[in-house]
Every structure is written in structure tokens, then in C-alpha cells.
Amino acid sequence: MTSAEGEHEGPPNKRRKLDADVNGAGCTPSSTSEEAIADEATATSLQRPISPPPLRSRQRTPHTSHLHDAHVTEPSPADEAVSTSCRATVEEEPDHKKSKVVRSPVQLSRIRDLAPHQNEDSVGLRDILGDPMIKECWNFNYLFDVDFVMSHFDTDVRDIVQVKIIHGFWKNVDERRIAMLEAAERYPNVQTISAYLPDPFGTHHTKMLILFQHDDFAQIVIHTANMIERDWTNMTQAVWKSPLLPLQMSPTPSPTDVTLPIGTGGRFMKDLLFYLNAYGRRLHGLTEQLVNYDPSAIRAAFLGSAPSRQKPAAARPSIQTSFGWLGLKQILSTTPVQPTSSTPNIVAQVSSIATLGATPTWLNHFHSVLNRTASSNRTFFAPAPKNPSPSLNIIFPTAPEIRTSLDGYASGASIHTKTQSPVQQKQLEYLRPLLCHWKHQDSHLSAVTPEQRREAHRGPAAPHIKTYVRFADEGRTGIDWAMVTSANLSKQAWGEVENKKGEVWVQSYEAGVVVWPGLFSDEDGDEGAVMVPVFGQDRPLVGDVGEEKGKGKGKGKGKTVVGFRMPYDLPLSPYGEDEVPWCATMPDNEEDWMGRVWNGY
């Protein structure tokens, strides 16, 4: 792996982050446009006076290929109008009631070879690690390029920030383990920690950063990218960042059996610590620090997986969230949804589909978990209205989408499913009706009007992101809940179906967050909250908050309107009858846009 700088981002401003920097979504604000495109700015000493943000420096020179040029589009007048309106008029409603607008709690990663207007509100690794106030970094992941990681810390603190790398390479002969350990030896401030993996097919797949700062703040970052250059340059990823969590002067340990509502900061921290404790004593130095920080500003539910055999009969969901699909079921069972006569749609967008079986037993069970909702509206005299059962779609790219992506076949090395064996062929039969393209297809555009098309500007950047979204209606104009996670569609990540012993077998480490609109509703004064998909920026526009977005009382008027940044275009493009998903293990002799063929592996 190369250690070359992959993002060409300028260093962040060396200003202390204050409470006023936290936005309404409970997340720190995105970097300024100057920071987003700067590629030659250099760090200044911590001892020097604080200076204003650096001036805009020249943009990265794009490739000259005509295929690449097609990916970088000029902003249209509509794009420019969107950029202006989302800042100036989104909160100005014609009615007397005004909507509170909340930026998406999830951001997309910056794509190196796309135009600035296609990278609005995006985030890069330097935005996360480049703060000179960071004193300690716990870095959980599957793949590591240590030199690449270290290059993203501020130059003034790079040699002193304490970096802990938590990985899952347990075979001494593993070349990736050897390369990682050799690179770590070049940095006295880097320590590697191996996670215990009792099952040969399990992996340490979690993608998370826990940061401690000199100014007594901590931050939790959950994302979808490996710590390698390719993942942070031209592949679509997602990032969730907690607010800055202040150190408590006199922390009060909470009893282990106390009930904390799912979605609150206290419950998030409790579930996160439960996950970290699955590593055993290896992470004692982390947990004994983290427990001292105040998580109350967090608005999300933490969902982890760790090697274990969960017992549903022994679960105590009011006290502790379980791992895998059982934990997801517990979270969604507390999540309210909007009553509707329209059919909701659950979209699972992943970068890997494992072998699930010749029959859809596991997938049907997982679909039933995704269908769970809160029954808080149900009473003895007035049962909650029964919504139509949600449909399910799965977004996964095909070989042509990989060939024409920004990195061509190279991006296909990070996207996995298998279709060769008889079992895998049977699996493809029941998956095919659910499968949709990652990139909007030209053949599908003829059936879509310009008004219906909503563009995420990520089609050319192959997906390593993993999202699960429940859309409230067939038109996908509202969102009941959304999840960003490291977990793909696999039994190892989510757990097997409960066996005869009453156990759910989970083999891998995973981490994710679930968000829903009610988490962002003010307790006094507003009429509730709605979540809407947003495209090209993190903040909802005026058109996103109108009554046409749903049928709830006063929809979008006097409510809290939360955006969720979409990584894919809508409406979806279903697979054709003869189309199959990309399979990295199969050779492909058709050249990608750079003239390369794929030999498989």
C-alpha cells in the first residue's frame, strides 16, 4: 500500500472547538469550502497566533480522459439555485409557522475526482484527524495503511499523538498483518491491538474512531471506510460524527441495570461500552477514559456486533441492546413510523453480499427484523393503525458500473458477492427481483421525468458505503429511520437465525448508528419531526419540507425537518432480467475505461 497523500486537503483551522460549533443535528459542522479544496496549505506551529482560514488554493488537476471528464459536470443553473436557497431561504416559510431545519446527521466522504459542486458538505479523513488538539486516537478497522493514516494528523502533533490500531489479523503469516506491523514500528507513538476472533470466518470489520483532545473533549466517529487510500479518494463512504463530548468534572457511574431510553446519549454510551467490553482487557485503557465523558448531546442509537452467542430469551432490551439482528430488532421496536396507506420501502445498500443460502430463509427473517416498528401508539381501546408491509430492495453494482467508475476495475476489489456455485446461483434467483443498480441507468431515465429525478452526485464513485433506510412511502419522499453501519448482508455480521438451542451466533465485529426523526424533535413548541432524503447537500431545501412530502398533520409546517444525505439517486433502477451483480472472483475480459481487464481472484 502506498503512503502517498490521497485527498490533498488543507489542514483544518487551528481554533478551539466551542459548544457553539455544534449544529442542531448534534454533529460538528462540516469544513469550509476553502478547507475542502485546499491541497497545498501547510501546517503552522501551535505556538503561533490563531490566524483566519487559508485562502482558496488551486484545485486538483483532473485526469484528461474523456471518460473521467464525463464524471465531473459543470453546475447547472438549478444546482446553483439549490446551493443558494439551501442557505438563504430554507427556513423562510410562507406560512406563519416555521420549520426548524436540521442538517443530515450523516455526511458523505469527499470524492477526489469529482467537481466541487458535487462534493458539497462532504468530509475527508483530514477533516477528522487533522485537528491539532487530538492527543489520543483509537482506530478500529479491517484494513490499515499506517503511513496513510499518520499522514492525516496535523504535522505539529503527528509524532506525539497516541495512536491505537485495533485490528483482526491473527495469522502470523498474513501479509497484511506483517505489512501493518512493520509500518507501525516506524512510529513510536503507534500501538497495535489484536481483537480476539474465535471463529475462522469472522472478521474485525468495525470502522470507528474514538478521539480524545487536549481541551478535555472526546468524539466518536463511525464510518464505512477502510484506513487505506483507495477508500478515502474515489469510493463513496459515509461518516457519522458525534458532537464533542465534554469531560465530566465529577462523573457519576450509572448502575448496570438502569433503564435508559434507546436513542438517548446515555443509552448510546452504555451500548458502546458494552460493545468495547467484548474485546476484554485489551481496551481497558479506552473504556476507563470514555466513561468520564458526557454523552448527553448524542442523538442516535449505537448498534454493534461482536463474536458471541446471543440468547433472545435472556435479552433485556430495556437495559442493554444486544448484538447483530437481535439488537437491531430491539432498536426498531422502539422506533415510531408515520401512519400511511402507501407501501413503505426498505432499501439495503451494501458493498458485499455473502452466501445466505439456497433458500431465502435467512433473508426473509432479516426482512422481518427490518419491518419492526414501535407499538407506542397502540392502546387497549385504540390499536395502532396497521401500515402496509414494507417492500425490500437491495442496491448493488453490476460489472458495467464498476468498469465505468472513477477507479475502474480497481474499485471492484472492494465489492464482493459470488455467483458461481449452484447454491449461489439459487441465491441469485431469489435476490434478482430485489436488486437495483448503484448508478442510475440511462435506459431507466426515459421513464423518469426531470422533476422525479433526484441526483446524489455519487454514481461514478463506486460504493463501499453501507446504508439501510426505511422510506415512509412508495415515492420515497420521507424517511422513518436510517442506519449507517460497517455490516453488509451476511450471517457473520448480523448473526444466524436462532438455532434449536435458542442462540443467535454472531461471528464478526461491526459498528453502526441508527437515526430517526423523533430524536431531533424539540420537546416544547414544535409539532414533531420528519426526516427527508436530501441530495447534493446536507441541509433540506424549501421543496423538501412541503405538505407533498407526507400526509401527517401539518407536515413540514412548524415541525423539525431533518435531512438524511442520500448516497444514491432516486428513483431506483431495478436490474433487468439478464443482469447480474458484480462478482470479483470472476474474470472479465471487457476493458474498463482505463483499458484494463479484470483477472478475478
UniProtKB/TrEMBL annotation:
Active site, per annotation: 205 (nucleophile), 464 (proton donor/acceptor)
InterPro entries cross-referenced by the UniProt entry: Tdp1
Region of interest: Disordered: 1-83
GO molecular function, one term: double-stranded DNA binding
Site (Interaction with DNA): 490
Main location: nucleus
Cell compartments where the protein resides: Nucleus
Keyword DNA damage: yes
Record: residues binding substrate: 207, 466
Name of the protein in question: Phospholipase D/nuclease
Single biological process term from Gene Ontology: DNA repair
Cross-referenced SUPFAM superfamilies: Phospholipase D/nuclease (SSF56024)
Gene Ontology cellular component list: nucleus
Keywords: DNA damage, DNA repair, Exonuclease, Hydrolase, Nuclease, Nucleus
Family: Belongs to the tyrosyl-DNA phosphodiesterase family.
Basic and acidic residues: bias regions: 1-12
